[in-house]
Amino acid sequence: MRVVLAFDKFKGTFTARQVCELVADGIRNRNPKIEIIHRPMADGGEGSAVLLAASLGMESLRVEVCDLLGKPAEANVFWQNARRLAVLESAEVLGNSRALATEEGLFQANTWGFGRLMQKAFPLRPQEIWLCIGGTLTVDAGWGIASAFGLSAYDAHGNRLKPCLDNMEKIETFEKEELPEYVKKCKIIVLCDVNAPATGPGVSLLSFLKQKGAKDSSIPIIEKRIQFFWNKLKQAFPYIPRLDEAFMGAGGGICLGLSAVFPNLKIEMGSKKIAKVIALAPSFSGTDLIVCGEGSLDDLTLYGKAVSTVSQLAMKSEQKLIGVFGKVTGNRTEFKNKLGLSDIITLLEEHQSGQTTSEIMRNSKIKLFNIGQDLAERISKKSNKSH
Predict the structure, then answer these.
(1) CATH number, position 371
(2) Which of 82, 144, 357, 360 has CB atoms 3.0–4.6 Å from 110's, for a disulfide?
(3) Residues whose CB falls within 8 Å of the CB of residue 68, separated by 6 or more in sequence, listed in order
(4) Quick check: helix, strand or coil at residue 204?
(5) In angstroms, rounded to a whole number, what is the distance separating the alpha carbons of residues 120 and 62?
(6) Together in a domain, 129 and 37
(7) Total structural domains in the chain?
């Protein structure tokens, strides 16, 4: 009897590894004979760099940078000397652990601090840098990162502009400094947490603005400024991607600015890269059940989040898959069909929405343990029937 636990984080409560451990405790309590394979997952957003570093045996180098509002901060450069590989995470510098999601903050915030974090990796002379992109409270379209690497924007009077949403429509011209050869030679791979364009029908960068602090009335204004910024950037750097291309909406449009200074940028689906690194698909061989999940199941889950990648691999190997989620927003039957889930289990019911964070965490620990026990029962019954 064998089960694979491939959870992503339950944002604000548990890391992916903690969820796996809590469910595993319940399984072991009910049936210690069941073999449990831990494959904590991530999608490129918060927690991705730590997970990759653990899987690849990387060392952590703490460096001083600044956050999305220019305040002093510390962050990790994960480093593997044998491969000359550095792994960095945007959420660590630009995420909600650094600031509250407010509209005022959104219009002033930028990605310059993450650019500085990248700069801190280059003295190591990496051959590759993996950028985990997602979970940011920024929407400067990567202007700040590009600025850290010598891209300057000027207004009609020749004044240099601070990179931020507030200043986008003031841009008249760009100037770019030449990068050192060792920076140009480094392979930059971006691992995005969502396969969404910056603009266009369906899920896009605009779909994430409210959770970053934007009011409904400001969304058309932000869209207009992003379009203006792209038009100016495209005039100066014709090779940058279109706004409606895949991944351009991830991390508040970070790949747009990045592509101006790193033309050979490679962009990938974060969850697929991570699944490959942790050998997720091979772990499914001979298993009785795969269990995945994250804090919230909604329409955005279908756009390259960890659950969708686990789902694709499970369907390919024709394995039974169960999903465990903090909450579900949308049609459960549709989600089950699209993700190939045999069952959806939730921790939080609608009548529990008024609970405090500590109450949710305490109750969720118990619920995850109980879910583990229930899963053990299902696996044991299936095993008994097959014999």
Answers:
(1) 3.40.50.10350
(2) 144
(3) 93, 94, 98, 99, 105, 109, 110, 111, 113, 136, 137, 138
(4) coil
(5) 10
(6) no
(7) 2
Confirm if 294 and 10 have CB atoms less than 8 A apart.
yes
Helix (H, G, I), strand (E, B) or coil at 335: helix
Angle at 270 between CA 267 and CA 274, to 5 degrees: 125
CB contact at 8 A, 105 and 62: no
pTM of the model: 0.94
Residues 344-367 pLDDT 10s = 999 976 545 566 667 777 889 999
Q: Are residues 97 and 235 in the same domain?
A: yes
pLDDT (mean) for 26-38: 96
What's the one-letter identity of residue 121? A
Of 271, 297, 326, which residue sits at a domain end? 271
What is the per-residue pLDDT for 383? 65
Q: What is the pLDDT of residue 260?
A: 97
Q: How far apart are CA 210 and CA 249, in angstroms?
A: 14
The alpha-helical segments, DSSP class H, found in the chain are 16-30, 48-56, 90-94, 103-108, 112-121, 143-148, 181-185, 219-236, 254-261, 270-277, 280-283, 306-316, 332-339, 357-386
CA geometry: angle at 120 spanning 114 and 125, to 5°? 125
| Per-residue pLDDT tens over the stretch 142-188 | 999 999 999 999 999 999 999 999 999 999 999 999 999 999 999 99
Within 13 Å and on the Cβ side, how many CA atoms surround 243?
A: 22
- C-alpha span between 52 and 367 (Å, rounded): 28
Cβ pair 34, 28 in contact under 8 A: yes
Q: What's the rounded Cα separation, in Å, for the pair 309 and 258? A: 25
Closest C-alpha among 179, 180, 142 to residue 163: 142
Look at residue 236 and give its three-state secondary structure: helix
Residue at token pair 């329409």 = 299
Residue keyed to tokens 């903090």: 326
- Provide the residue range defining the domain that includes 140: 48-271
